Amino acid sequence: MLYKEDIIKILKSMNLPLNEYWITSGAGLVLHGVKERTNDIDLGCTTRLIEHFLKKGCTYRLAEDNSRIMEINDTIEILENWFVDEIEFIDALPVGSLASIKKQKSELGREKDITDIKMIEEYIESKKPLQLYSKN
Q: Which InterPro entries is this protein grouped with (predicted)?
């Protein structure tokens, strides 16, 4: 299991160019504070970063849209051009916004994604300021 500190340490040690990748899915939710831990790190990335890892000998499989999905190791998977609408920086790392991650998970529609969507919604609701009503 990977906690926030683990994700940050792993990604910073890789020294990836900040404009070539973004953290999404479960790892993104951990960095946002929605979840406590995740099993792996999913990154969206540019074609340029995929090419970089191909030169290092990494292999890939094709997604339904013919984009490439590459397992960097047992923990990290990068998905070519798996775009998010908005990126925020958390601990100096590029992370898909909660709205972007929610949108991706809605499009995937798997049972675990539906669970994550509910967690995102509950998290956002819990962060809303308390509204006080007066009887006047």
A: NT_sf
CATH topology of domain 2-98: Beta Polymerase; domain 2 (3.30.460)
Residues contacting residue 49 through CB under 8 Å, at least 6 positions apart: 16, 17, 20, 21, 78
Whole-structure pTM value: 0.89
Q: What are phi and psi of 99, to 5 degrees?
A: -60, -40
Q: Give residues with Cβ within 8 angstroms of 113, minimum separation 6.
A: 105, 106
In angstroms, the CA 126 to CA 33 distance is 12
Give the residue extent of every domain in the chain. Answer: 2-98
